[in-house]
């Protein structure tokens, strides 16, 4: 953490934050969670949030690139190896779900369960932490609303999720209703990615998350 975060602190980072309507995903998860738990698979919001990242990266591949330390070479990565920051007994570890672009949401859930069990036991092998191309930090699993995530070099983008909260919202008729809201905070390497690209990526990701049914149109 000392080495990686010191290196990260030298990179000019662009921050971008937004609010996400989680109503449909909360409903979808409660439907699928019971079914998956029968097969022993824990199903949180993360598998869907991770898949939505991959679907959005298809349209914004620069966010899935890596750069060398002096930022003279940028490599666009074909695989979406999405790292997930884990709070483990050994401290912060960021294993990654490999080739998310080829995986179903179910397969991502199974892989996340595997990584979480190994992380909790302090037994994550180096292969699971190597070669991440994008990172996510679900700090909302612990609490909080916003975070300023820091890049994990050589990757150039990271997102942090706050806690899903129940809040009062107005519907399209102007009537008050119960809403589920989550905040997302992105950071990107501003040497290679401009802010508008981060905003467009975030909008596309947010659209998938707010309308999870739309994801099936773009899944392979
Ligand atoms: N808002 C509301 N509920 C949340 C939530 C959020 N943002 N994130 C998780 N939950 C819920 C889950 O849905 C699950 O609910 P059920 O018990 O009803 O199924 C429960 O909290 C436990 O989830 P989890 O933590 O086991 O699973 P996850 O896939 O959501 O997250 C992991 C996995 C590894 C990301 C998380 O456990 C973790 O370690 N988070 C901390 C990350 C961290 O330390 N970030 C800082 C890095 S920089 O120092």
Automatic annotation (TrEMBL):
Its cofactor is (R)-lipoate. The keyword Chaperone does not apply. This is Lipoamide acyltransferase component of branched-chain alpha-keto acid dehydrogenase complex, mitochondrial. It comes from the Eukaryota. GO terms for cellular component: mitochondrion. It holds the Pfam family 2-oxoacid_dh. GO terms for molecular function: acetyltransferase activity; lipoic acid binding. Residues 1-217 form the 2-oxoacid dehydrogenase acyltransferase catalytic domain. The keyword Transferase applies. Keywords: Acyltransferase, Transferase.
């Amino acid at each position: 953490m000392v080495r990686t975060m010191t290196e990260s602190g030298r990179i000019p980072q662009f921050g971008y934050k937004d609010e996400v309507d989680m109503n449909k995903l909360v409903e979808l998860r409660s439907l699928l969670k019971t079914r998956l738990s029968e097969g022993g698979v824990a199903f949180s919001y993360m598998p869907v949030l991770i898949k939505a990242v991959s679907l959005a990266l298809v349209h914004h591949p620069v966010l899935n690139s890596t750069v060398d330390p002096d930022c003279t070479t940028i490599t666009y990565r074909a695989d979406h190896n999405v790292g997930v920051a884990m709070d483990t007994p050994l401290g912060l570890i960021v294993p990654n779900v490999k080739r998310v672009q080829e995986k179903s949401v179910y397969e991502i859930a199974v892989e996340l369960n595997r990584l979480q069990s190994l992380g909790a036991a302090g037994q994550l092998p180096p292969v699971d932490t190597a070669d991440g191309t994008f990172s996510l930090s679900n700090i909302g699993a612990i609490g909080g609303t916003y975070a300023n995530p820091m890049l994990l070099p050589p990757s150039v983008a990271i997102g942090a999720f706050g806690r899903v909260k129940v809040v009062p919202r107005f519907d399209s008729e102007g009537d008050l209703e119960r809403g589920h809201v989550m905040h997302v905070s992105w950071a990107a390497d501003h040497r290679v990615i401009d802010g508008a690209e981060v905003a467009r990526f975030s909008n596309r990701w947010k659209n998938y998350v707010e309308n999870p049914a739309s994801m099936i149109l773009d899944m392979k």
